[in-house]
Amino acid sequence: MAENITKKVDSIQFSMITPQNIKKMAVAKIVTPELYDREGYPVDGGLMDIRLGVIDPGLRCKTCGQKLKECPGHFGFMDLARPVAHIKYVDMILKFLRTTCSQCGRILVEDEKIKKHLENVSLAEKERRYKVKNNLVLAFINSIKLIKKCPHCKAKQKKITIEKPSTMLEDGKRLNPIQIKGRLEKINDADVSALGLDPKFARPEWMILDILAVPPVTIRPSITLESGERSEDDLTHKLSDIVRINQRLFENINAGAPEIIIEDLWDLLQYHVTTFFDNHIAQVPVARHRSGQPLKTLTERIKSKEGRFRHNLAGKRVNFSARTVISGDPKIKFNEVGVPLVVAKELTIPEKVTDWNIKWLKELIEKGQENYPGANYVIRPDGKKKRITEETKEQLLEELQPGYIVERHLIEKDISIFNRQPSLHRMSIMCHKIKILPGKSFRLNPAVCTPYGADFDGDEMNLHIPQTEEARAEAEVLMSVQNHIISPKNGLNIIGSIEDAISGLYLLTKGLTFTKENAIELLISAGIYDKKMRNSKDKVTGKEIFSILLQEDFNFVGTSKDGNNVIIKNGSLKEGIIDKALVGEDNGQLIREIYAKYNEDVGIDFLAKIFKLGIATLLYSGFTIGISDSDIPEKVDKKNEELVKKAKKDVNAIIKIYDEGKLESLPGNTVEETLELKITEVLNKVRNDISKQVSNTVNEDNPTIIMANSGAKGNLLNVAMMSSCVGQQAIRGKRVKGKMHGRALSIFKKNDLSPEAHGFIEKGYKKGMSPHEYYFGAMTGRDALMDVALRTPKSGYLYRRLANALQDLRIEYDSTVRDAEKSIVQFKYGEDGIDISKSDGGKINVKKIIKQIQGK
Amino acid sequence: MAEEFDIKKHSFVPVHIKLTEEEAQKVLEEFNVTKDEIPKILISDPAIENLKPDYGDLIKIIRKSPTNTESTFFRVVVNG
Question: Which stretch of DSSP H or E encloses residue A680?
Answer without folding.
Answer: helix A671-697
